[in-house]
């Protein structure tokens, strides 16, 4: 398969009844500020360079962000932080990501969500996580050959990446490297060679409002990703 085929198949996935109901309900009721806009209301495909050097793995699309705009991290507060940081270090063409036609580009990078449909309260169940895992496996199988760094956002993105590598039969070391902000683990690819798995706190409002994650902290991880990837 190709990424285009993967995107076509994932965009019509209805495997999780609770998430299908939620993503579609949100797309009909909408948030007042976006009442006049169409909502995507479907699974969010990976976005960016088809042969990325840097891959960013997030949790799931936001109900009024990616689930509205159809592009991951686009049109929500987490994305505001993420794209501003990527732009500061030279991994994104623009500092903001507002809608799918805004001209934003990732420079040598790609983004994907571990769970591709917006979950209520941003919390997928374990069953939903596992149901969506094959899509991430397929995406990583296709893009890992060019990847030099994966930035995992939060322990959710970190664990999803490690589980996916194991599913792809990469020789993940035991004990598995533990998530932390700024952790840099060298891991084997299934097809040979290695890449850096970099941990970052998720730029959720919970982390950014409280100061648990600051702009310099996020920039440091993104700059490291750029440095080890030769972008
Ligand atoms: Fe399909 Fe994943 Fe959405 Fe579940 S979360 S419906 S598996 S795309």
From TrEMBL:
Signal peptide: none annotated. One of its GO terms (molecular function) is 4 iron, 4 sulfur cluster binding. Transmembrane segments: none annotated. Keywords: 4Fe-4S, DNA damage, DNA repair, Hydrolase, Iron, Iron-sulfur, Metal-binding. GO terms for biological process: base-excision repair. Residues 45-222 form the Uracil-DNA glycosylase-like domain. Belongs to the uracil-DNA glycosylase (UDG) superfamily. Type 5 (UDGb) family. This is Type-5 uracil-DNA glycosylase. The chain holds residues 42 to 272 of 272 of the full protein.
């Amino acid at each position: 398969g190709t990424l285009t085929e993967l995107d076509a198949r994932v965009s019509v996935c209805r495997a999780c009844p609770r998430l299908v109901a939620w993503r579609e309900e949100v797309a009909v009721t909408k948030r007042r500020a976006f009442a006049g806009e169409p909502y995507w209301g479907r699974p969010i495909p990976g976005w960016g360079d088809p042969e990325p050097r840097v891959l960013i793995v997030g949790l799931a699309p936001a109900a009024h962000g990616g689930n509205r705009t159809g592009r991951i991290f686009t049109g929500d507060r987490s994305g505001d932080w993420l794209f501003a940081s990527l732009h500061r270090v030279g991994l994104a063409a623009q500092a903001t990501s507002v809608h799918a036609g805004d001209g934003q580009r990732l420079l040598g990078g790609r983004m994907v969500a571990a769970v591709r449909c917006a979950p209520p309260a941003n919390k997928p169940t374990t069953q939903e996580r596992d149901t969506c895992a094959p899509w991430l496996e397929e995406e990583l199988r296709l893009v890992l050959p060019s990847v030099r760094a994966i930035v995992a956002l939060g322990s959710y993105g970190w664990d999803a990446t490690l589980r996916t590598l194991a599913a792809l039969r990469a020789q993940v070391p035991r004990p598995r490297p533990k998530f932390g902000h700024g952790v840099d683990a060298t891991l084997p690819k299934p097809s040979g060679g290695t890449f850096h798995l970099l941990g970052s706190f998720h730029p959720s409002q919970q982390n950014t409002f409280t100061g648990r994650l600051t702009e310099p902290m996020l920039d440091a991880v993104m700059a490291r990703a750029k440095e080890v990837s030769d972008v």
